[in-house]
Amino acid sequence: MNLGVHIPDPEQLAAIMAGFSAFSAVVVVSWPYVFRDTLSDRMRRVEGERERIRQRERARLEEKSRVSLRVEPKRLFQAIVDRFRLAKQAEDGEIVRKLSMAGYRGHAAVTAFLAFRLIAPVAIFAACLLYILLVVRPEAPLLLVVAMAAAMGALGYFSPAIFVRNRITKRQQSIRRSWPEALDLLLITVEAGMGIESAFRKVGEEIGTQSPETAEEILLTTAELSYLQDRRQAFENLGQRTGVEGVRAVVTSLIQAEKYGTPLGQALRVMAQENRDMRMSEAEKRAAALPPKLTVPMILFFLPVLFAVIITPAVIQIMST
């Protein structure tokens, strides 16, 4: 039964297949010339942009170094450190690390810290001795007065360390408060297609209005990414300089992404939410600790006034009757 379907002859079918094969071969051969692969060109442009960023950050860091990091210590401080050989106390690197966490960097900061730790006890001892002898004028023997002034002077040895510790606490608090917003900005810039150096530089410029400390650390990391051969070292330095757990977690993720090539978007989003939750938890903890702290002031100052307000009218009425 003929259904009107035309079946081509084997010779025609072979000719069609041969023509199709020839056309496919021509397309395959001419494809690289007609549609050129732009991946290599894009990679070269990215590499060139990274090199330009590195040169710009090198120039910026050199300018900043001439202003702050390469400031020569004062001659008095340097003379004191050299005379008493105090530089050995900073050989372990602990003083340098603490000063870096407090925001003081360079040889001048270390020299000033060592000199102040020697000058402060002497200055406090002299000030206390003069105050006791000239202002208080006690009946106690002179030896006891000198011993009291010496005890106060001994406490002055720890005053520079206490000052640095307070600076570290305030700096970490500022970084901890602004770090979730910095992570949000970093996430936006990374997902927009920016490189890690450009993303860090953009975040450092934008977060400076909220937290200059965070902007300083991020921009310093950007400069180190341009200078150091090992990018992992730049990320590790960021965690060591801040000493904040949230920053160290982000540093660990950045190092893993740099090593294994994993995407950063999801990790940054999760860590931003975790840091925000940690900030809220800290605020709730402080709010929960407020009532016990208010107990003693209320007992000493509020309750006596309340009792006086309640009892005084009754006392006045009893006395009048």
Instruction: Report on the biggest sheet.
Output: none
Helix residue percentage: over 70%
How many strand segments? 0
Seen as an oligomer or otherwise, the chain set is single chain
- Give the low-pLDDT segments: 64-69
| Beta-strand content | under 5%
Label this structure with key terms.
321 residues; mainly alpha; 2 domains; 13 helices; elongated; membrane; T2SS_GspF_dom; transmembrane; plasmid; Pilus assembly protein
How would you characterize the overall build of this protein?
The protein folds into two domains: 10-33 and 73-169, no CATH class; 172-278. By secondary structure, it is an all-alpha fold. Helix 3 crosses helix 5. It has helices spanning 10-34, 39-69, 75-83, 94-102, 107-136, 142-156, 159-191, 196-207, 212-227, 231-242, 245-260, 265-288, 290-320.
Topology, please?
Layout (H helix, E strand, L loop, with lengths): L9 H25 L4 H31 L5 H9 L10 H9 L4 H30 L5 H15 L2 H33 L4 H12 L4 H16 L3 H12 L2 H16 L4 H24 L1 H31 L1
Helix pairs in contact: 2-9, 3-5, 4-7, 5-6, 7-8, 7-12, 8-9, 9-10, 10-11, 11-12
Short recap of the structure:
The protein is mainly α and 321 residues long.
